[in-house]
Amino acid sequence: METKNAFHIGRVVKQSNIFDAQGEKVQKSISSNGSSSPSISNGSSSPELETQSSDIEVCQIFTQSSSRSSGFSDMQCSTDSPDEENNSILQINGSITLSLMEAKLWYKFLEIGTEMAINRTGRRMFPYVEFSLRGVDPVGLYDVIFDIIPASSKSFKFMNNKWIPIGRKEKEFKNSPFKHPDSPQIGSDWMTRKISFEKVKLSNRPGTQAGIFTLHTLQKYLVRISLVKHEEDDELSVVEFPIRATTFIAVTAYNNREVTKLKINSNPYSKGFRIPVRRLKHEEIQQLDTKKQRLVSMEDSMKNSVHYHLKRDVPAFPQRQLDFSAQKD
DNA sequence: TCCACTATCACTTTTGAAGCGC
DNA sequence: AGCGCTTCAAAAGTGATAGTGG
Asked: Which of A183, A232, A239, A315 has the most CB atoms around it within 10 Å of its CB?
């Protein structure tokens, strides 16, 4: 079966999710202490997020017996911070592991409430989603699919320096999940590289092309990665990784000053905003002779700049224990 | 009046074509 | 001709901000 960008999860023949009697998808999650807690995930779940800080976020899907099996029954996410040198957790037999890169940065944003700017033409995500895979069938053929799903049934408003849930969210736009351009590839190829979706864009205008997701502003979303395995009998099996660390609220202009500061300090393209120099319009620069330019004092610049506020008020990011237990609604 | 949204700005990074030498 | 390196301009990215309109 051919899977293009307009991939429909509903057409999958075999897949990992468990369905309850009502046909609603149930994702059974196991916390790190081994207890399990099933939760409903109908694509619009609302994970109230515990935040934490680690280098890499690891999500594991445990298969039933072998890598050939399509019955991914249990899902576990852990955050044992395996870095490149300490990745023993990635060696577990019979499991698929997704390691989110820049997880530390993702959790810094999550701590203060991630906002993603969107516009008509499409704005890139920052941080972007990049990860590595372990435990997939080395000779199996896989597609890697990027998708953005609702993370709450509410819309939000920024009040008193925090996001408050208000009325019900608007009906979602129809977005086609985005297949990684290198798909399909065999498992061994996927496992020897970083898989990046840095060029995915977010828009608020419906009807954009592949790789641009149309979202509603002031609504909460998260990224979901799906692995689609092409089975020998022409069937497909799917395993999904909703990545809670990527939960964000779509905005047309940033609301939280802390988010802006963090973006400026971590995004290379924003370097121009790190230097505490007053930004002048072209005409202004032309009008100013060199003497006058010197009069643009550093003190004024500092008062007007983001950098100034940063120096005064450096946010602390408390280290918290990771909790990847159930996706709460 | 409020606030979400848009267009535009000044800035940086990325990209790719052109030029050059071996 | 082909390859590798450097240079440089254009394209594409960023948050800030003023203006618009519902």
From this structure: A239
CA A64 centroid distance within chain: 27
Residues A29-42 have pLDDT tens digits of 222 222 333 232 33
Query: Is the CB of residue A308 inside 7 Å of nucleic acid strand C?
Result: no
Is A232 in contact with A240 (CB distance < 8 Å)? no
Q: What is the sign, positive or negative, of the torsion defined by CA atoms of A209, A210, A216, A217? A: negative
Neighbours of A89 (CB within 10 A): 17
> Cα dihedral sign for A160, A166, A171, A175?
positive
Q: Which bases of chain C are under 7 A from a protein CB atom?
A: 12-18
Question: With contact defined as beta carbons under 8 Å apart, do A200 and A129 qualify?
Answer: yes
Whole-angstrom distance, CA of residue A311 vs CA of residue A180: 40
- From the CA of A217, how many Å to the C1' of B4? 9
User: Among chain A residues 274 through 293, which have CB within 7 angstroms of nucleic chain B?
Assistant: 275, 277, 279-285
Contacts of A98 (CB under 8 A, 6+ apart): A58, A59, A60, A131, A132, A133, A225, A241, A243
The pTM score is 0.67
Largest CA distance in chain A: 77
CB of A270 within 7 Å of some strand C atom: yes
Nearest to A77 by CA among A131, A24, A128, A113: A131
Is A133 near strand B, with its CB below 7 A from some atom of it? no
